[in-house]
Amino acid sequence: MAKLALITGASTGIGFELAHLAADNGYDLIIAADEALIESAAADLRTKNIAVTAIEADLSTFEGVDRVLAAANGRPLDLVCANAGRGLGHGFLDQSVADWTKVIDTNITGTLYLVQKVLTEMVARNDGKLLITGSIAGFIPGSFQAVYNSSKSFIDSFADAVRNELKDSDGVTITTLMPGPTETEFFDRADMLDTQVGADDSKADPAKVARDGWAALMAGDAHIVSGFQNKLQVAAAHVLPAAMLAERHRKMAESVTAE
């Protein structure tokens, strides 16, 4: 029987490209997202002659994550890409409570719930590969994207901690993929198309980011920062004062129509 991969946030962007890479490597797929477009992604992936189950679910909730996990029908998950995420632009005081809690529930709570569930089974059989999509944003105080960047800082740190906790489970690997700005629907959904970073046409190709993540996952690497410029940003974030980093981020993320 083919191995089984679960990929969240797979309707578009990096998750969609990761799903293609898994399919190309012979994995059956469970793909999930919080939008109906996941069915179109599944139709595309089925042309590769692998089994694909598509689940439209709210991955910010325990119930949504449980629905996705139930689709395995008892089969072990050999590979999991916890890729679902949500962005949110504009100043924190201008964001509704419903919007910023949705970011936290998707990027942190739902992700941790999924990770705990799948890692428990992987560790029990001492076999499995987990990719968690963090971000270089986690290294930068995110002016006008404060909740999102902070959520990714949490995820980047969380992955490092759990990786250390499980260092004796040598059959289980945890890889953190840390991209920078990528050409996906992220900026549209985060209402950031009127920002410098949202309008920038030099954002990374999601297929390239996914290939970098997949290679690191297959090698069992702990981290991968995708893109040379992003590696430089991470290096700078370790030495520059937080106030300077926040001001740099402000220039990228503040609405050009802001007064």
TrEMBL record:
<dbReference type="GO" id="GO:0016491">
    <property type="term" value="F:oxidoreductase activity"/>
</dbReference>
<dbReference type="InterPro" id="IPR020904">
    <property type="entry name" value="Sc_DH/Rdtase_CS"/>
</dbReference>
<dbReference type="InterPro" id="IPR036291">
    <property type="entry name" value="NAD(P)-bd_dom_sf"/>
</dbReference>
<dbReference type="Pfam" id="PF00106">
    <property type="entry name" value="adh_short"/>
</dbReference>
<keyword id="KW-0560">Oxidoreductase</keyword>
<comment type="similarity">
    <text>Belongs to the short-chain dehydrogenases/reductases (SDR) family.</text>
</comment>
<dbReference type="GO" id="GO:0016020">
    <property type="term" value="C:membrane"/>
</dbReference>
<protein>
    <submittedName>
        <fullName>SDR family NAD(P)-dependent oxidoreductase</fullName>
    </submittedName>
</protein>
<dbReference type="InterPro" id="IPR002347">
    <property type="entry name" value="SDR_fam"/>
</dbReference>
